[in-house]
Amino acid sequence: MDELTLRQQEILGYLQLHMRSYSTWPSFREIQAHFGFRSTNAVMGHLRALEKKGYISRVPGQARTFRITMDFNEENQPTDSVEVVDIPIYGTIAAGYPDGVETGGEIGRLQIDAETAGIRRARRAFALKVRGDSMIDAGIFDGDIVILEPRPPNNEDIVAALIDGETTLKRFIQKRGKAPFLKAENKSYPQLHPVAELVIQGIAKSVVRNL
Predict the structure, then answer these.
(1) CATH number at residue 159
(2) From its phi and psi, is residue 11 left (phi > 0), alpha (psi between -120 and 50) or beta?
(3) Closest C-alpha among 109, 108, 104, 105 to residue 84
(4) Does residue 78 have a pLDDT over 60?
(5) What CATH number should be reported for the domain holding residue 78?
(6) Fewer CB in a 10 Å sphere around the end CB: N or C, the chain?
(7) 3-state secondary structure the chain
(8) Number of structural domains, the chain?
(9) Would you please indicate which residues are annotated as catalytic (active-site) residues?
(10) Given this model, what pLDDT does residue 76 score?
(11) Residue 1 lies in a domain
(12) Is a pLDDT exceeding 60 seen at residue 146?
């Protein structure tokens, strides 16, 4: 591989540290602010240089999303590359009492280490921002972002569900011979038993929290 300039080494080191610390790829504006660049165009220029030299590569189908293809440890020895997945964030979901169905439009994107997220890039994962405190005993808090996969649930999976026309984030309970229901992870909230409809929209795989 071609040798990096000092600035390119600094930027690659920042990308590596951010991924190891937060398991997410930093935004262009975060890189801009960290290095004091005047615009995100400068960020893109440095990323293109790292891409050309083989240290990062683009995520297929995502024009402004990259992954580290040549990672180094503190002794400057190559380590396994980090696979970054690019996930759409589709609004918020109530983690309290069920709420009206949120807009299905994309409000942002999340780049995260696939292993940390617990997902495979081939699967159509999506993310929702949590609003409420009914899942705090499961370690899911107001303001967290939960990453989900659309697949059939197993008993005790945490799910994004449509129950009688309203959405919520709860634990799915399916007991043999009985109708499934939703259970909160906060004793202040009751169980939710559907009157007419219970549709599972996704299974929670991991949680991203801003500290």
Answers:
(1) 2.10.109.10
(2) alpha
(3) 109
(4) no
(5) 1.10.10.10
(6) C
(7) CCCCCHHHHHHHHHHHHHHHHHCECCCHHHHHHHHCCCCHHHHHHHHHHHHHCCCEEECCCCCCCEEECCEECCCCCEECCCCEEEEEEEEEEECCCCEECCCCCCCEEEEEEHHHHCCCCCCCCEEEEEECCCCHHHCCCCCCEEEEECCCCCCCCEEEEEECCEEEEEEEECCCCCCCEEECCCCCCCCECCCCCEEEEEEEEEEECCC
(8) 2
(9) 134, 170
(10) 45
(11) no
(12) yes
Residue 59 in any domain: the answer is: yes
pTM of the model: 0.64
Q: Give the Cα-Cα-Cα angle 133, 89, 15 (nearest 5 degrees).
A: 105
**Residues 76, 121 within the same domain:** no
Q: Are strands 126-131 and 84-94 parallel, antiparallel or unpaired?
A: parallel
List, in order, residues 6 or more apart from 191 with CB less than 8 Å away: 173, 181, 182, 183, 184
Indicate if 54 and 97 belong to the same structural domain.
no
pLDDT (tens digit per residue) in 1-13: 567 787 888 888 8
Do 71 and 92 fall within a single domain? no
